[in-house]
Amino acid sequence: MTESRRSRVTFAVLSVTVRPIMNALMAKKYLGAEKLPRDTGFIVCPNHITEIDPVVIGHFLFNQKVTPHFLAKASLFKVPVMGWILRATGQVPVDRTTAGANRSLEAAREAIDAGGGIVVYPEGTLTRDPDMWPMKGRTGAARLALQTGAPVVPIAHWGAHEVFPRYAKRFYLFPRKTSRVIVGDPVDFSDLIGQPITKTLLDTGTERILDALTALVAELRHEAPPTERWNPANKHQKSTGRDFESKPEENP
């Protein structure tokens, strides 16, 4: 399978409109781009620190001539204009029903077969860690890797949150910031592929992804990561929503 003509045209239009905006918002420094697979589709696993992350990662991938595809909530595909853009560029709707999950998997397979990068945030949402380190993850990226056999490439970035902080309401453009993006080596899943997909296997794969991602973030920040990964459940935090810090979930 190859990218449709509509997808190529839509991406071309977006590149003309969005790339100049991103160039104006911040400077960019890219590291390790040569590690991106060039002969196959792959799974991209970035850290998640601000709402503009998808644009930062999408911009980076597009500049490397890799077509980016994101897993997006199915409800977003119903939003006027946005829904059309998501469908036109081959983004993948995520539906929580069994049938919907199967359709999402098939769409992700098609994106990988097309030679693009399917972007899956292993944390599932913006990190709740107060210091913005990758937090405990969800198993979606590991499951997709085990089901497809596609390479898993961790990509960390740092700096975009200074332009648009987590859950901010405005941009902070001055002084000019720099967004740094670094690509890591593919995560080794060779000993996991082909085994029965159990919770233990998924957790093992997820931890490998987050370990690799955390190491890359530490390299960008020139800091040592925490010895224990932040777990929102242990802190009685909501797993979604902007008010996760002010309104903790009650224990059942």
Characterize the structure shown.
- The protein contains 7 helices and 7 strands, in the order αββαβαβαβαβαβα.
- The C terminus is likely disordered.
- Strand 3, helix 3 and strand 4 form a beta-alpha-beta unit.
- By secondary structure, it is α/β, with parallel strands linked by helices.
- Helix 1 crosses helix 2 and helix 5 crosses helix 7.
- A 7-stranded mixed sheet has the order 1-7-6-2-5-3-4, sandwiched between helices.
- 36% of the residues lie in helices and 14% in strands.
- It is globular and about 45 Å long.
Q: What key phrases describe this protein's structure?
A:
single chain, 7 strands, 36% helix, globular, seven-stranded mixed β-sheet, alpha/beta
Sheet with the most strands?
Answer: 7 strands, mixed
In what order do the strands lie side by side in the largest sheet? 1-7-6-2-5-3-4
Report the helical percentage: 25-40%
Distance between the termini: 48 Å
What's a quick, concise take on this entry?
By secondary structure, this protein is of the alpha/beta class. The chain has helices at residues 5-25, 53-63, 82-88, 98-113, 140-148, 160-163, 199-221; strands at 27-31, 42-46, 68-73, 92-94, 117-119, 152-158, 178-183.
Write the layout of secondary structure elements.
Elements: H1 5-25, E1 27-31, E2 42-46, H2 53-63, E3 68-73, H3 82-88, E4 92-94, H4 98-113, E5 117-119, H5 140-148, E6 152-158, H6 160-163, E7 178-183, H7 199-221
Parallel strand pairs: 1-7, 2-5, 2-6, 3-4, 3-5
Antiparallel strand pairs: 6-7
Helix pairs in contact: 1-2, 5-7
